[in-house]
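Fold it.
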Amino acid sequence: MGKDKQYESGSLSLWSAVAMGTGVMIGAGIFALTGQVAELARGLYPLAFLLAAVVSAFSAYSCVKMANAWPSAGGIAMFLKKAYGRSLVTAGCALLMVFSMIINESLVARTFGTYVLQAFDVDENSNWVAILGVGLIVFAYLVNVATNELISRISVASALVKVGGIVIFALITLTLAGFSFQPADSIGGGATSAGDAAEGGIAGFVAAVALGILAYKGFTTITNSGSELENPQRNVGRAIIISLAICLVVYLLVSWAVGSTLTIDEIVNAKDFSLAEASRGIGIGRYGVWFTIAVAVIATASGLLASVFAVSRMLAMITKMELIPHRHLGMPGTVQKHMLVYICVTAALLTVFFDLSRIASLGAIFYLVMDIAIHWGLYRHLRDEAGAKGWVVLTAIGLDVIVLGAFLWIKMLRDPMILLWAGVGIVAIFVLEWLFLRQHDYSDGEDPNYQSPGERSS
């Protein structure tokens, strides 16, 4: 097999990795989740984003420690395998991560459609949301098939544009609003107390933190580039920290800006397009709306491109680990190209059949379950070898358990059907993996059955 240029050592700079991380995070994260987090946390929603960053920072600690010790293009999948071997836990949790990212892609796609329609005053419940979302997924597939170099260039350029655009939106909004933040006058037109700020009480606020974590989990894509980064033992951690810091500043600025323009009830009523709604009331007419829509379109489109690329690489690596079956079904090209088809078809189906709230809920549950497994694997099997501090890893596990428990409780009260979907999905993943691993022996190397004709001839 010829050398795979996309995994060339030292081919990725620190700032390219930062752009990749922020590119995935600042996609649907702030545009779709602001309203959903506010729905649960009410006036405390900026604090929910802040605490979500804290939880994500503890999660990042485990990833940084393992990436420093074992830099790999496999990222999360390789970390799981290092901790648990070729096992059901490794395979199942790796797929939970994959599906959480695919779910996030459908969230991004629907957010794209929702914001585009704001330019035409079309109802956000229109079928055009799904149509536009699927169209974006098709576009992402075509770009990913074309060239990996193009994706890298788009990620870097769009990261600068969308971060700058969102900051400009926030600063203009805050300036015109007199830098005020008064979300407390939202419920029924009257004031609310601090204790009433979170509609679901403490559990509702903690559940909002769980959703907020989705806005930061894109940092995990940086770990997939460990074998390509310049000086990966140093730069993986730096790229993750810088990306999280940039996103935290952006999210807090946006939360402040939206809260200075809209009441909490208005944010919740426009939860799928709250930034566009906020831009309507800042005193510069439709120009503000168009500007916000343009930034949202760039952010979601580039975020989807980067995410599809990252997931296809991870799935290709899981395939080469012989943790999942693969059939090329007559398709030419590499395993990664085949995975692009499976990823985009799955994301398109989710885009058509699920709304934003349920998509986000599924993603949060899958991701947090996987994250707990990562921390436990590091603590139980690898912490001495990786040089990790046990108390930090245990704190990460505790925080994940708390936010996941609160989120499941709130969803059981408000939308038990999503728990059924999540439960069925998790059980199906592990049962199918158990059957596959029983029937397929490990070949202690790359199995030719997992390579397409194009790869075998290279």
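Confidence is low (pLDDT under 50) at residues 1-7, 183-197, 444-458.
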